[in-house]
Amino acid sequence: MNGELWAGFAIASLIVGLLPGPGVTSIVGYALTAGLRTALASVFGATLGNAVAMALSLVGVGVLLADSPGAFFLLKWIGAAYLVVLGGYTMLAARRGSLVADRDVGAIRPRTAFWGTFAITSINPKTIIFFVAFTPQFISPDHGYWLQAALLLATFSAVVTLSDGFYAVAASWIAGFLKGPDVRLWSQRIGGSVLIAAGLLTVAASA
After folding, report:
1. How far apart are CA 157 and CA 50, in angstroms?
2. How many Å apart are CA 20 and CA 181, to the nearest integer?
3. Residue 146, SS3 per DSSP
4. Beta strands, E only, the chain
5. pLDDT digits (tens, 9 = 90+) for 85-128
6. Is 146 part of any domain?
7. Pick from 164, 84, 76: which is nearest to 126 by CA?
């Protein structure tokens, strides 16, 4: 793979990473509801999930999923249901005032956020099939396939981690201005709504 081909892939990866989707939406939701630490955990969950999805596509699983409507239906609803339930719980807890105090900002644990974004990025069949169509455009037939595939996977993971991290830091920075109890309460409600929206977006993106 020559430098121009790699640079083109890196730029395309950045564009894909900056486009808001279910993963980005959930990261913003975690930032608003639980702070930067939890949001960054969700970023790394998305990184691992994307890496798994890309690896699966590179070994041909995407082709199998494309021919299996049942797998599409099942997998897209697993990730969507997780986010909707978590968002609903967050809004309910905020309504009771249990997330208003500063000591409770981490009510959504980093581990929960990590596995949540991992689930919606790694088991989204459309993500896998996207990689099936996307990555071959940047594979040179004059060089070894697996070495190029590994380079593309590492590049995409690094670029998208940076773009997701930007969203996490920006949303957390905005949430940092929400200091008052009433404002914090509404930020928790908005964050829960964003998580529910991420779940619905997961279904829409996989339809």
Report:
1. 7
2. 29
3. helix
4. none
5. 767 766 665 555 544 444 444 467 899 889 888 988 887 666 67
6. yes
7. 76
- SS3 state at 151: helix
Q: For the chain, how many structural domains are there in total?
A: 1
- Gyration radius from the chain CA atoms: 18
**138 domain-assigned:** yes
In a domain? residue 5: no
| CA 149 – CA 81 distance, rounded (Å) | 32
CA gap 102, 150 in Å, rounded: 43
Helix (H, G, I), strand (E, B) or coil at 176: coil
User: What do you get for the CA distance between the two ends of the chain, in Å?
Assistant: 34
Residue 192 token pair = 């829960």
Dist. CA 186–CA 1, nearest whole Å: 50
Give 107's contacts (C-beta < 8 A, 6+ positions apart): 33, 34, 90, 93, 98, 99
Best CA proximity match to 34, nearest among 75, 89, 79, 78: 89
pLDDT per residue as tens digits for the range 34-55: 888 999 999 999 999 989 988 8
Q: Could you tell me if residue 148 is inside a domain? A: yes
Task: Using a cut of 0.85, tell me whether the model's pTM lies above it.
Answer: no
Which range of residues forms the domain containing residue 192? 22-206
DSSP classification of residue 35: -
Residue type, 36: L
DSSP-assigned letter for residue 68: -
For tokens 């009510």, the residue is 107
**84 or 82: which leads in pLDDT:** 84
